[in-house]
Design a protein that fits this description.
Layout: H1 3-17, H2 21-26, H3 31-37, H4 40-47, H5 60-84, H6 89-96, H7 100-110, H8 124-141, H9 148-159, H10 167-179
Helix pairs in contact: 8-9, 9-10
Length: 183
């Protein structure tokens, strides 16, 4: 039995049951075939056939549209999460190309307070704690230091472990480690 035969046969039976005969005709069946397919013995012969009796055709335009939408949705979720965790405007510009005004609007929509000026530096104790988290998450997530979004994922994972620090502060600390070749 070919593994896809059952799936296609099920779809045909479902279409016939729901009166969607045009869908069956669009699949390549003729009207005389539809009358025969209602017979369980005939449908069984199709389902149990060791060879496929249909052709699968990929609609490249639709596939590309769906993949682009999925990628866009993932990026929007990542942006929203980063802003909610305290990502700074310069950080959002660097990672996503978002201008400061758009980041401010998104912050307002999310109810994230807007802060002016630079964030304070991380204390030595906090940096030691962050370093331990960095080692843990970069190993777990197989972080690629050349891919800033991969680094962002590790930074966002670290954010929940130190309530006094937001994503911008952690991001700046990690970037300084990278610039100093410490990682």
């Amino acid at each position: 039995m070919h593994p896809l035969n059952l799936a296609v046969a099920f779809q045909i039976l479902n279409n016939i049951k729901n009166g969607q005969l045009r869908s069956c005709l669009a699949m390549g069946f003729e009207e005389k075939d539809l009358k025969t397919l209602i017979d369980p013995h005939c449908m069984g012969a199709l389902v149990n056939s060791p060879v496929p009796w249909f052709k699968v055709v990929v609609d490249g335009v639709v596939v590309n549209r769906l993949l682009a939408h999925a990628k866009h949705s993932e990026e929007e979720e990542l942006i929203t999460r980063a802003i909610a965790l305290g990502g700074s405007s310069p950080m959002m510009q660097e990672l996503f190309g978002l201008p400061a005004k758009e980041v401010a609007v998104r912050r307002a929509i999310l109810g994230v307070p807007n802060r002016k000026g630079r964030w304070p530096n991380v204390s030595a104790e906090e940096e030691t704690f962050l370093w331990k988290l960095w080692i843990k998450y970069t190993k777990e997530q197989n972080t690629d230091l050349k891919d800033l979004r991969s680094v962002l994922e590790a930074a966002m994972a670290m954010t929940g472990h130190q309530p006094a620090l937001n994503l911008a502060m952690i991001w700046n600390t990690i970037k300084s480690w990278i610039e100093q070749d410490l990682v």
